[in-house]
């Protein structure tokens, strides 16, 4: 019986695979079409895409189809992909050029509709990538920490940031709660009868 791989082993393999993809992709004509700002994020985006495709859809690059790619771009990455917001902005463009390259060099199965699906979902996927209302809580925390230049590997720094983050979130939540006001005896009754409180619901008090 073949030994079942741990998630740590799978992650290490995905990381190595993404680095190989990035190195080969960097030599391509498709890579040269990317904006300079996008080029900085090629490896993290490829790694994030492959992790979600394998982790949530159990698909390697050679097994990908259009529906899987569309789901990862529209749902998986917006919710799960933890990275600097700038990378989120360019993620769809990077994956679009990468799959054009992958199709050209034969990394994908010949029978697939990936490029057609990406073209169809790209405008919506770009908006969803940067929509914070779609981010899972852990992603929102880490992205805000990155924006504040918090060292994620510094435990004390992260603890200090997280306390501040929780306090801010609690403050926002508190502002959304409308406190019940005590009704005065001469105020209009809250039952909308049009009568004063003392001659309506307050008459029995």
Task: Describe how the helices and strands are arranged.
Layout: H1 7-25, H2 36-39, H3 42-57, H4 66-80, H5 85-105, H6 114-129, H7 137-147, H8 155-176
Helix pairs in contact: 1-3, 3-4, 3-5, 4-6, 5-6
Defining key terms:
single chain; 205 residues; mainly alpha; 8 helices; 0% strand
What can you tell me about this protein's structure?
- The protein has 205 residues and is mostly helical.
- Helix content is 60%, strand content 0%.
- The chain is built from eight helices and no strands.
- Helix 1 packs across helix 3.
- It is elongated and about 80 Å long.
- It starts with 6 loop residues before the first helix and ends in a 29-residue tail after the last helix.
- About 4% of the residues have low confidence.
H/E topology pattern: HHHHHHHH
Helical segment count? 8
Largest sheet: none
Binned, the helix content reads 55-70%
- Average pLDDT figure: 83
Structural class computed from helices and strand pairing:
mainly alpha
Overall spatial form: elongated
Radius of gyration: 25 Å
Percent strand: under 5%
Number of strands: 0
Instruction: List the uncertain runs.
Output: 173-181
First-last Cα distance: 78 Å
